[in-house]
Amino acid sequence: MVSRIDWQKIYDFWFPIDLTGADVAAHWQMLAWWMRGGANTDLARFAPALRAARAGQLDHWLETPRGRLCLIIVLDQFPRGLFAGSAEAYASDRAALDIAEDGFQNGHYDALESPYERFFHLLPLAHAEGPDHLERMRRIVAISEQALEEAPEHLKPVWQYSLSQAEGNLDVIARFGRFPHRNPVLGRASTREELAYLAKGDFVHMRTLPASSSSAISAIG
Question: Pfam families recorded for this chain (predicted)?
Fold first, then answer.
């Protein structure tokens, strides 16, 4: 039943460990899990939550900052794991964007305590294509620059990587106004310039983590 879907279960799944005070290796390990599909094999059990979210049946989660964050994660992150390689992966992007933008306006974003909570609240601004995409990407770069500045010294490589990803996405949207790698999945015709970009295959979301992250992760493996 929809009434039994609790945002806390989403939160505990997506943030399984407290990174407060953790060393840099633990941060890289979680970043790899988040960004490289580590959660995908367990996402099927959350499919009912995604269906309910898309139907507006979980809008009561919007009453609190973390509830809002979890609804964003369900709509923005879960489809990418559940429906990778299909148009369905992007079907909730606009809904997630609207919820994220409302969270900026009502103070929920600022109320989030962890930089990673704020990171996932922010991601729909990068993911949702649309006429204001370039402006949103510029906002993300500015926020990422601030996050890097505020990060503890030992964690700066992590947030430098995050900034580089934001800058990479900004470059793509500035050049094309959309993500060309989605064109085949969405049935869109690619321009000559996009075809050259696709042939190169250097997609921002598929770039490997820095070499320093691999050594850090292997040290605790």
Answer: DUF924
